[in-house]
Write a structure and sequence with these properties.
The protein is an alpha/beta fold and 220 residues long. Helix content is 34%, strand content 29%. It has helices at 34-45, 62-72, 103-120, 131-137, 142-158, 177-185, and strands spanning 26-31, 51-61, 80-86, 94-96, 123-129, 160-168, 190-196, 201-207, 214-219.
Length: 220
């Protein structure tokens, strides 16, 4: 774990050649391959010692999310709180959402989970996988912008955390995906675009998180 210019601890990324991330930074994660997106997402949000993860899962159950995160960073699954649209709730670690399109309730539940995680550890990593599923469930895309800015990104400004929002660009949405991403980019610190080039090979195009654009080849 490195420190930034003010001496504050940064957030280390598991198994990716990406610089450590400053607290308060947010990443828009995009790509047309959901499995490739998931692999990168899990590595960005997997909590290190002294941290917690809070994940909004729109197409997986909570236990699957925890197992997938645990696979990329040992014991990180046990440090993960999940708000899931599928599967059962379990104790304080996994909550469920009845209607992924009810963004008012969704925002309240997500903010409550972030607050609960901070009672254990002030440092947190928050993530949404997949925001494109939420977009498909609502009538007005503008409500997604409001949800992200009012709840998801606001929590980063209030606390010691980072955020990752994943969008599957191949999703069938009743809106222009490129225009939506262009609009969202203005609210996020940076963007990582993921392209699969082989069975286990990806190219990551990273913008906004360093002084220059980076193109990185990785194997997962």
């Amino acid at each position: 774990m490195s420190k930034n210019a003010t001496g504050a601890d940064r957030f280390a990324v598991a198994d990716l050649p990406i610089d450590d991330i400053d607290s308060g930074e947010s990443i828009l994660l995009t790509g047309a391959d959901a499995d490739a997106l998931r692999g990168v997402f899990n590595r960005l949000v997997a909590a290190d010692d002294g941290e917690r993860s809070v994940v909004l899962a729109t197409n997986s159950d909570g236990m699957t999310v925890q197992r997938n995160i645990d696979a990329v960073r040992r014991e990180a699954g046990a440090r993960t709180l999940v708000l899931a649209s599928n599967g059962p709730a379990r104790g304080d670690e996994i909550e469920t959402v009845d209607d992924i399109g009810d963004l008012t309730t969704l925002g309240m539940q997500f903010s409550n989970l972030v607050a609960a995680s901070q009672q254990v550890h002030p440092r947190f990593r928050s993530g949404i996988f997949l925001c494109s599923t939420i977009t498909a469930a609502v009538d007005d895309t503008r409500s997604v912008y409001r949800f992200l800015n009012t709840n998801f990104l606001t929590e980063l400004r209030r606390g010691d955390g980072i955020g990752v929002c994943a969008i599957d660009t191949s999703a069938d949405l009743e809106t222009d995906v490129d225009s939506m991403i262009t609009g969202l980019e203005t609210s996020f610190t940076g963007r990582i675009d993921v392209e699969r080039t082989g069975p286990n090979d990806l190219v990551l195009t990273v913008t906004g998180l360093s002084s220059r654009e980076q193109t990185l080849e990785v194997s997962l």
